[in-house]
Automatic annotation (TrEMBL):
<comment type="similarity">
    <text>Belongs to the MsrA Met sulfoxide reductase family.</text>
</comment>
<comment type="function">
    <text>Has an important function as a repair enzyme for proteins that have been inactivated by oxidation. Catalyzes the reversible oxidation-reduction of methionine sulfoxide in proteins to methionine.</text>
</comment>
<dbReference type="InterPro" id="IPR050162">
    <property type="entry name" value="MsrA_MetSO_reductase"/>
</dbReference>
<dbReference type="GO" id="GO:0008113">
    <property type="term" value="F:peptide-methionine (S)-S-oxide reductase activity"/>
</dbReference>
<feature type="active site">
    <location>
        <position position="10"/>
    </location>
</feature>
<dbReference type="InterPro" id="IPR036509">
    <property type="entry name" value="Met_Sox_Rdtase_MsrA_sf"/>
</dbReference>
<dbReference type="Pfam" id="PF01625">
    <property type="entry name" value="PMSR"/>
</dbReference>
<feature type="domain" description="Peptide methionine sulphoxide reductase MsrA">
    <location>
        <begin position="3"/>
        <end position="153"/>
    </location>
</feature>
<protein>
    <recommendedName>
        <fullName>Peptide methionine sulfoxide reductase MsrA</fullName>
        <ecNumber>1.8.4.11</ecNumber>
    </recommendedName>
</protein>
<dbReference type="GO" id="GO:0005737">
    <property type="term" value="C:cytoplasm"/>
</dbReference>
<keyword id="KW-0560">Oxidoreductase</keyword>
<dbReference type="GO" id="GO:0034599">
    <property type="term" value="P:cellular response to oxidative stress"/>
</dbReference>
<dbReference type="InterPro" id="IPR002569">
    <property type="entry name" value="Met_Sox_Rdtase_MsrA_dom"/>
</dbReference>
């Protein structure tokens, strides 16, 4: 199994989107690459913790590879927007690809360079090693499965 953490705005929709993809084994929403240990949602939503709302994705690389995961990721975000996606604004809603395996960095950068060809504006999506990931509160996990009328900026 391989792992990657993706930030793409509100994490509810990103998690639901990736949970439906064959080969994705597990998804978990949480807070990535901030400065506050074990932050709460109340802290993260203030844009003062440095965390991005993110989704941990574990996938079976024999069924789907990182390139395919990234292709699907680029489809659901606007990588040229800084600190926002859809109507959600704040640094916690920034886009980011946080890799766990150093070998993935080259694949990610190549994917970003290919995606950049589609835009006149520069892609501002962060590409960084994962420094921290704290699972979000239980009520955020699988939120759109539990709340079918819940908000989502992604067309599911």
């Amino acid at each position: 199994m391989k792992e990657i953490v993706l930030a793409g705005g509100c994490f509810w929709g990103v998690e639901e989107y990736f949970s439906r993809i064959p080969g994705v084994v597990e998804t978990k929403v949480g807070y990535a690459n901030g400065t506050v240990p074990n932050p709460t949602y109340e802290q993260v939503k203030t844009s003062t913790t440095g965390h991005a709302e993110s989704v941990y994705i574990q996938y079976d690389e024999h069924k789907i590879n990182l390139e395919e995961i990234l292709e699907k990721y680029w489809e659901i975000i606007d990588p040229t927007l800084l600190n926002r996606q859809g109507p959600d604004i704040g640094s916690q809603y920034r886009t980011g690809i946080f890799f766990i395996h150093p070998d993935d960095e080259e694949i990610i950068k190549k994917s970003k360079n290919e995606e950049q060809k589609k835009y006149d504006q520069p892609i501002v999506t962060e590409i960084k090693p994962l420094k921290s990931f704290y699972p979000a509160e239980e009520y955020h996990q699988k939120y759109l499965k539990k709340n079918s009328n819940g908000y989502c900026h992604i067309k599911l």
